[in-house]
Amino acid sequence: MTSSSRGSAAWLPADRWQDPERIERWRPLLERIEARMELRPEGPGASALQELVGGIKMLTGLSPSLTLKAGSPLLILGSPESAARSSGEWNTLPLAEEAYVLRIKMADEDGNQACPKAEYAILRGGSERGLLYGVFALLRLMGTQPHGPRESDIAEAPRNPLRMIDQWDNMDGSVERGYSGGSIFYRDNRILPESDRIIGYARLLASVGINAISVNNVNVHREETKLITSSLLPDVKRLSDIFGRYGIRMFLSANYAAPLELGGLDTADPLNEDVKQWWRRKAEEIYAAVPELGGFVVKADSENRPGPFTYGRDHADGANLLADALAPYGGTVMWRCFVYDCHQDWRDRSTDRARAAYDHFRDLDGRFRDNVILQIKNGPMDFQVREPVSPLFGAMPQTNQVMEFQIAQEYTGQQRDVCFLVPQWKKSLDFDTFLNGAGSTVKQIAAGKVHPFTRSGVAAVSNIGDDDNWTGHHLAQANLFGFGRLAWNPDLESDVIAAEWSALTFGVDTPAAKFVEELLLESWPVYESYTAPLGVGWMVQPHYHYAVDVDGYEYSKWGTYHFADRTGIGVDRTMATGTGYVGQYAAENRDIYESPAECPDELLLFFHHVPYTHVLKSGKTVIQHIYDSRFEGAEKVERWIARWRELESEADHERFLHILRRLEGQAENAKQWRDVVNTYFYRKSGIPDERERMLYA
């Protein structure tokens, strides 16, 4: 196995086990397989068999015999005779469509309980998709158990109904906010449905339980608008079929102004009868060509995108126009809530971008069709390294909602700096909104357990491109893996997910895997420690969003301010003296955020403008925290480099060098952030570092 193919395989089986005893322990399960299903060549069941047989051969070198019989989606590994003699619960237990059950039964060997051999394994899915998820779960089990199979009874179903990936790919082959090369879907304004990379991507997504994907940028340009025209729909269909083999339903990002750009109309007014008829005819044409299409993702009236505001209408009018057109075909409209004034006057301290989504959408609750889902960013600003949870999420109990995350590290290191985002997402998912009493956590709302949503879940912006390792930085693969695992089960802990990915990609119980796991879990706090402090965000180079520029957005139109002056820093969003944003939360959270004494330190400057001498709960002043954390973050990256160098013989040469070079680049970035941020605030405040380290006056 070359290092190049190891990168492209990501966490899927790619390396032959080198331990003969490990292979022997699994052998009783892996030499023969009995499949019971109606096998459709292009269905998820066929993909499940292919993944299982291929994974076994890759890991062990064994080529199992395969017997196919009619029946429900079920696989028996090892001894069908032994399985037949066991309890039949596995064959009668009701299962949801995407659920699976896995039973591994161990048998005594000469009465030796200390060293049992596997007798059989039974894997049953609630459907072909459920079976496929079960196969990937079994392969994950094989990859993370170093000593062979253990007796198991596992029953799993996804917690979130919708588990979606949004691509920001353009048809010219570029990717907006792409840090991993070009698009795998498009080149020179054509679709690439014949690409093996697309098949590989579908496998990766299915392996972590993703069941939906939107394949073009939410900023729909002229060429992407044509994806819903007759000339491109045959290729759209072929692309949809690839994902369909892996149980993934495909969506398209739609241009709200398509009737003007494609249809010859002079309006896109959602209440205009000609516009309604245009979309009805277009939906009929689309679904005749691609009947399994999931629907549309729409960004409207946001960052200069067209929308219903042009015609004096609101977002419910706009979303319902498309929803009514798609409803006869079972289609869904994913309507993004990232709407704000992107031409703000920085002189106006009363305008607050953080308020915008709530102010635009909250009063529309109950007016959206049942096949509309509002897609709400996890924070009120824009995927910053630290934000509070959006107060809009859960605040519209009569409107379907999904929570949107960003796997692409736009503001968190752009896949040059390692930043494992699972702990950040966990913090959002575990947040209690109190909007329907205690226990109204984001993860419960997304799962449809708090309000009577007909459609809900989580979505995320993808981080992949055509780089061989998919994500630019080898370690950034962990974010794609981690999002899928959290979308399936938001109760999984960050350390469990980090351990799974590290074992699957660097080997189970290897020194490299153990260090990578440790590094991943430290990386978000470390990245935060040398970038923007205590929740203010945005101290990045405008438009580019990677390197430090403390005032880059301070006097801009985007509403992204930190308001640092000679005495203090932070944005007053309180009800008493500020923008009133705090009042968008339920009382239990509002009262905490309103008070500087109660507000969590990590969000203090998001909610309050405080003096540099304000004492944090840690006992440090704000200014000393800024100094200390910048130095500590940069020093930690240097220690990572030293540790990784010690592991040169524990990883393949290509990945060792790649990660080393990325860490070295991260160290330089951390030093620059350290020196620029510390110097900036030293010059602003005039307060020296208590520890007398180098500041540049």
TrEMBL record:
Keyword Transferase: no
Keywords of this entry: Carbohydrate metabolism, Glycosidase, Hydrolase, Polysaccharide degradation, Xylan degradation
UniProt domain Glycosyl hydrolase family 67 C-terminal: residue ranges: 471-693
Positions of transmembrane segments: none
Signal peptide location: none
InterPro entries from the UniProt entry: A-glucoronidase_C_sf (IPR037054), GH (IPR017853), Glyco_hydro_67_aGlcAse (IPR011395), Glyco_hydro_67_C (IPR011099), Glyco_hydro_67_cat (IPR011100), Hex-like_dom2 (IPR029018)
Domain Glycosyl hydrolase family 67 catalytic, chain residue ranges per copy: 152-470
Gene3D superfamilies on file: Alpha-glucuronidase, C-terminal domain, Chitobiase/beta-hexosaminidase domain 2-like, Glycosidases
Family membership noted in the UniProt record: Belongs to the glycosyl hydrolase 67 family.
Name of the protein in its database record: Xylan alpha-(1->2)-glucuronosidase
